[in-house]
Design brief:
Length: about 325
């Protein structure tokens, strides 16, 4: 890691702000239209950025992890969130719908192969997309890996992380009656999909607040309430996906399917003290994947915005840039 990274904020490490040269709404079926943008060099190395959540949406900062002179940067808001419509909708909204959406974006933009960049849920989706379409992926850059296993969901919503954050866990759990606390995902689902907009927003803010408070080691405690519309989409979509365990066929599907992508080079950036997606998942993945390089970042948690995480991700995008010829770009 760049030794100066710890002395700079994440924003200072990023490339300068840029604006898209292309924005569009893409009809993906099922009543959904997704927001897609392109930035940087139209003739550059194509990279698709997969945001977290599910339901987080993309942000202008995500454009800035890539040299705009060298990369053709594709960002989009996944179904139901950000600028995509209908907002907060879970109808026709599953992992496999999103995998198809990514392929439709690639085909629509006339891209043959691209780099796939994703963190947290975005890393999950990156892996599943690559396993479904390995011939379309030149390199994977992953952060804070989440494998959508029952153990990971139990860690975060069953009290595991709460052992380190008992005050915040108590606040999150106390929203639910004691007799329902054995299934927090199910209990929150009942409230997030109650049909009462005010009730849904109240529980959505609690859901988002629990995750956001644990995302970075740079602060200790609640980070304030998320805006109502953002929180509602974020919480409903996450809960919907987690309740169905990502619609995976079995618990270890991603790990068991690593042979499908074993030929693809990858860089995995993982915070050593990630409380949302503990390092064990990244470690297991890298142990099975000889072409994956795991970079454990000391004194870093889960958030994309942490300086150590940002420094390693930019280092990874620069490395791919240098290897463009070898990757076929």
């Amino acid at each position: 890691m760049d030794k100066s990274a710890g002395q700079k904020s994440a924003t200072q490490l990023l490339y300068p702000p840029i604006e898209p040269f292309d924005k569009r709404m893409l009809d993906v079926g099922g009543g959904h239209q997704i927001y897609v943008e392109q930035c940087g060099n139209p003739g550059g190395i194509p990279v698709v950025v997969l945001h977290g959540g599910p339901g987080g949406g993309c942000s202008p900062a995500m454009r800035r992890y890539f040299d705009p002179k060298e990369y053709r940067i594709v960002l989009f808001d996944q179904r139901g969130c950000g600028r995509s419509r209908p907002h907060a909708s879970v109808d026709d909204n599953t992992t496999w719908h999103l995998v198809r959406d990514i392929e439709l974006i690639r085909e629509t933009l006339g891209i043959d192969r691209w780099v796939v960049f994703g963190g947290s849920w975005g890393a999950t989706l990156s892996l599943l997309y690559a396993q479904a379409h390995p011939e379309r992926v030149a390199h994977l850059i992953l952060r804070g890996v989440f494998l959508m296993t029952r153990a990971e969901l139990d860690w975060f919503y069953g009290g595991g992380a709460g052992q380190f954050w008992p005050d915040l866990w108590s606040r999150f759990a106390s929203m639910i009656p004691l007799d329902e606390q054995s299934d927090m995902i199910g209990a929150y689902h009942k409230r997030l999909f109650s049909g009462d907009r005010m009730l849904e927003t109240r529980f959505a803010r609690a859901w988002a607040g629990w995750e956001n408070a644990l995302a970075t080691i740079d602060h200790d405690g609640p980070v304030g309430e998320a805006p109502a519309d953002y929180a509602r989409a974020f919480a409903r979509l996450e809960n919907h996906y987690f309740r169905h365990q990502g619609w995976l066929e079995h618990d270890q599907q991603i790990l068991n399917n690593v042979p499908l992508i074993s030929h693809i080079p990858a860089t995995i950036v993982q915070g050593r003290y990630d409380m949302v997606c503990p390092p064990a998942a990244s470690w297991k993945l890298s142990e099975r994947w000889s072409r994956a390089e795991l970079r454990l970042v000391p004194l870093a948690g889960h958030a994309l915005s942490e300086p150590g995480i940002t420094a390693e991700l930019i280092r990874a995008t620069r490395a791919v840039q240098r290897q463009a010829g070898l990757l076929g770009f």
